[in-house]
Protein 1
Amino acid sequence: MPNDNGRFGQYGGRFVPETVMPALIELEANYRRLKEDAAFQSEVDFYLNEYAGRPTKLYYAAKLSQHYGRGKIYLKREDLLHTGAHKINNAIGQALLARQMGKKRIVAETGAGQHGVACATVAALFGLQCSVFMGAEDMERQALNVFRMRLLGTEVVPVTSGSGTLKDATSEAIRYWVTHIQDTHYIIGSVVGPHPYPMLVRDFQAVIGQEVAAQIAAAGEKLNYLVACIGGGSNAMGIFYQFRDDLSVTKLGVEAAGKGLQTGEHAASLTNGKPGVLHGALSYLRQDSEGQVIPAYSISAGLDYPGVGPEHSYFKDTGRVTYTAVTDEEALAAFARLARLEGIIPALESAHALAYLETLMPQTKPDEVIVVCLSGRGDKDVQMVAQVMGGLAG
Amino acid sequence: MNIAEKFRTLSATGRKGLIIYLTAGFPDYSTTLQAVKAVESAGADLVEIGLPFSDPMADGPIIQHAATQALAAGATVGKALELVTLLKQETTIPLAIMTYYNIVLQFGIDKFAGSFAKAGITGLIIPDLPVEETAVVEPACRQAGLDLIKFIAPTTTPDRLQTICRQAAGFLYCISSTGVTGVRQIDYDQLAPLMTAVRGETGLPLAMGFGIGSPAAACQAAKYADAVIVGSAVMERLTNSGVEAVREFTSAIRQALDKECGC
């Protein structure tokens, strides 16, 4: 998977202007060659291990487990990586790919800023020019990450069109890429976009699940549940992929229900959307009856994307993964809960996965093992959360 | 008159074709109707009716703005269909629909092709549907008698060129530069080798678009193509000055193509 046309079942594909097609074909050919190239793979591994800080810990959250009184909850600590989130796995892989292809410039989109910071970081590391497109609203919500990117020498371009969030930043990044296609590589930040991106981002993130499998085995445990948040879905795909055919592991993807699914202000494309085409791929999408894309909403800038990776759509239809959604309020409660119980401040994105434990844990058997992907750390969100729940945190 | 007939007529009289793009429902449908009439009277040969999409990946700021405004004013596919029906009563100019794939997909591919063909459309242009993805739309277009227009870009490789030309119908939409729609300076002479290569693969008419913002630029492009496509420059005039400005601009391009190009 995917097939030659980049399809996962009916999902995926390459719905892009002709200008971009040769670049996608070149990218796929280079990627398929380098995937089999031991020298390239060991270079990726070198930077993942020596620079980014892999493997990340699989931490047994004793107090969180105790809080629910049943089951053993482990946290896959992607938040401990350099730059603070799983995004660096993909950024390193794609930057090295870009360098192998002789590209001098990289362009990226970012929502919460974590992917933007990861790209700015690898651009500095590998001496590439970098432009990051970011919604104007997100730049306000994530001012600290904007500063980080600029400090790293990246140009941050505000996007005011549409809803001024991740969807529009992605559109602008694609437009920039189309214009500078000859010398620029577009580092898509999630398992979305036209083929081969969903496949190659998945492959660069699959290390998360591979490590979980080894770490669970080393701990002498048997895994029962995997829980991860889903915006575009890269950390979830990264942790699920290793276990895609293992039916003994229940995989749960948690989307952002925002202010509530019934309010229409949410980002739950799998739970509450239907198949459509956005940013080059056919996948579940929030759209109206005419096919116009409905801007997504979530308190987490990293989740408010109206689409989702096409392989997740395939997993949904085939029942391999169960998708669900939690509200802003539930995510905020989980954010505070992990901080108080474990001394770990999670990213608001990851807090959505943690929030689902409220539903999941009462259903688990006492000795079952749950791994939650802690996709990133919450430093970037602290200021905004303080504004929303200052009283609670104080 | 369909696209092939139109180009045969142009070829017989030794003239270059002029294709004008207009966003349906911007700022309202009545204006679109007037604008189509205006460009017809000013000598346009084909009008691309753009159905707005919320995320127009191939378009620059001017056309994106028009799409956003049209949608905010309540533009729908159904209303565009009514507009086309009216246009066929009040004009004789051939019409093509330009829109993004999701709009067609959600309306229903067969229903979309059938309804617009019945209303009098002769071609369908979908900029985010490369030749690899046309298999689902092609049969519906063939059934309805619509030409599904294919694109050639400066980045198109020789093997792709062959595939695209083999599947092409109506005319080939030759993109003059990498990037999105919008007026810019282009060295059209640089495109000569590409256009020669395209002519080596197909006998279909070649229309060049993207970036053409003046009568002089239209003439430059027409040296290598059978027709030119003008969108953003027209929409800019419609946005800032109204239908009369569109008529004058179209007329200026028409005259330049007829006289200065020596065609």
Protein 2
Amino acid sequence: MRIHIKGGRLIDPANGLDGRHDLYIADGQVVAIDQAPDGFSADQVIDATDQIVIPGLVDLNARLREPGQEHKATIASETRAAAAGGITTLCVQPDTDPIIDTPAVSELIHHRARQAGYARVVTLGALTVQLQGEHLSEMEELMREGGCIAVSNALQPLNNTLVYRRALEYAANFNLTVFIYANDPWLSNKGCAHEGAISTRLGLPGIPESAETVAVARDLMLIEQTGVRAHFMHLSCAQSIQKIARARHDNLPVSIDVAAHQLYLTEMDIGDFNSACHVIPPLRTQRDKDGLRAGLGSGTINAISSCHQPHDADAKLAPFCETDPGISALETLLPLTLRLAGEKVLSLSEAIARITSEPARILGIDGGRLGVGDRADVCIFDPQERWTVDYNTLASCGKNTPFLGWEMQGRVSHTLLAGQSVYQVNL
Amino acid sequence: MKRQDIQCDSQGQLRHFLTIEGHKRETLTQILDTAENFITVGNQPVKKVPLLRGKTIVNLFFESSTRTRTTFELAAKRLSADVLNVNISTSSTSKGESLLDMLHNLEAMHCDMFVVRHEQSGAAHFIAQHVAPHISIINAGDGRHAHPTQAMLDVFTIRRHKPDFTALRVAIVGDLMHSRVARSQIHALNTLGVPEVRAIGPCTLIPPYLQQMGVHVYNDVREGLKDVDVVIMLRLQRERMDGALLPSELEYFQTYGLTQEKLALAKPDAIVMHPGPINRGVEIESSVADGPQSVILEQVSNGIAVRMAVMSVVLGRKPSGEEGEA
């Protein structure tokens, strides 16, 4: 399949490109920019005039619910939603059912993703057996046989700091990045909302800022001691970002992502127990939101993730604390990120880097770039088109988003996965 | 978000009573004035008025409470309503769908009002958002969030002793962290114009940012009780008295328990209140609980009149095309 993407504004932060360029694709790769190779004859020409062409998005944190919770969503349904959102690579956590602590589960996920064919799925292996924080998983085998590209204990705590230290040391042994959810479970204490004025008024058990910042401080000390490369997932507090910025200044090999919804919502959005805003970590204060935005602007925060967690309708139909936390977010990742550029938090090129080249770099995978010879994972979007987040038109099985009814600007028109069209608007 | 929105119908009439927060002073005063009319019903030979005849009220208690359920039941019966008591173990309705299924089944039985108690904050709001338009919800306590009828009976009791709210200093003492009663009391007192509401307790039992609800926080009970007109003691739940919150009942009593000596710091005519049940010798000493300044038993009696008032005001509204009865 040979494709000529014509007349679009190509933004490829990894290669420093931002301008009107034609893109020529053959055999799943970018074969030329601007000048067609000799004898190139396109099977398909995509007219990208007035559109923006970027590398396919790389999402660091998404739950696809399969295996184990297929009543909520499947790999096929969610990768299809990813394609609709311009995402071509998704990184899934090991807290599936069964847990990804054997190569077979990882292989199953890769197999199902290949079968579906909408997006590439990469897996994190469990850091400890059954995520129970007691025994180290067979990380080398997970990597070699299961294709896991990094390890994580997902949302489960590692209460025993000696086991934690050993796990980090062992991961470092294989040069595996450890994805960390910074949370002190005792300080979180079964809370369901940010500990602050709103949770006090609503009588909701609070999760204090210190549940995250204390864990960040501990984790940084262990990272320093073990020399492991670490990635902090979906941080929510401004103070956490400051602590990690300092650690990076001291050359600690750590990276950070933030969930897109944390850049737009605060504890105030819980309103009168709006379960669509029940997320973990919780929505924090305006000060935290501003701090996260400042962290993006300064480059301390490397990436923006969807933190996609699709739920069935019943999961959100209960008193606030009894609902399942999480937002369905694949299809809003791109427009929310573009909005940051509109609000001058980042330049457009910097914003796109946070969802393409930077997450690819953190994962250590090919992707997130569109130079000659790179795989042709491409997202093309109309930056002017406005659309409303609507229950009936979201492709994800999860309709649980607080952004329902929000007007977004920037709509994906085409998504290519290794040079194959996996999404085209209005088809 | 204006919190009274869900509680009122399109004409601005009270449809649900979920929280004190957001209500106007006039609404609270209307309830208090209505309660005054009901206070003597219990003393009559026939303890009934026909205001809610033909109405069906369901006491939906997901969390057990004999005292509160009984007063709601008595209040409904004195208004001549039919009453159904449903006690549900939360374990059988831990998922939203089964809770909603059960609500829809009760709706199909043509009930008019659910009185809801639930261990989760926001449960009454959740139910109110999902019931049929003809059904009203009264919150009988949800998690740590609100217990609005308890707060109304407390301010009703205060008003009977000290009619001018604008000249009062009120102290709420004890476990404000876990108290839905205290949150509702704070909203009620602020709305009625009490100029100074004090929250008194150890740091471990005072929720963060409580000041933003319009109270002055005191960790020193002696300082906090000075010159107050009303002392509201809160129940300290024994199961919460572990090493993480308080070291011991004895130390709590010594530091925060209301004794004659500490009460003497308040104004000489200060009244002492407690939502009950009382832990004697833990949060209050018996001589104070049974003493001349205590109005604790009055609170219980007033509770029935106030709940009658809330029910009649809520069900007495005039839904579109239908004349209210009260």
